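Session log. Operator J.P. requested a structure for one protein chain; no other inputs attached. Running the standard single-chain path with token output.
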Amino acid sequence: QVQLVESGGGLVQAGGSLRLSCAATGTIFSRYAVSWYRQAPGKQRDLVATIASSGVTIYAESVKDRFTISRDNAKNMVFLQMNILKPEDTAVYYCKIWSGPGFWGQGTQVTVSA
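Structure written below.
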């Protein structure tokens, strides 16, 4: 049973920073890519960043140079460091592991005030 649990969301002022964490259980974590997605109210869920098992990373243009995705395979965790946050970054953030059909966490709310 693969489970993902996100944490680290909260309320922050524009220009601030947050660090999201995603803890995985039930899978050989190091073998799989992991992504962060976000979904704002009334909008589709969008890909934010992905880190491959090799450590290669890709980012959405809207977060490039502000967000950094990283992983700690020894702890089965993935992180999303978010800097210079903007109100438009407000969303529920989800992590997804690309194991089998793909598994999602429950999400963590990030709210950026102007």
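Operator note: The first strand starts at residue 3 and ends at 7.
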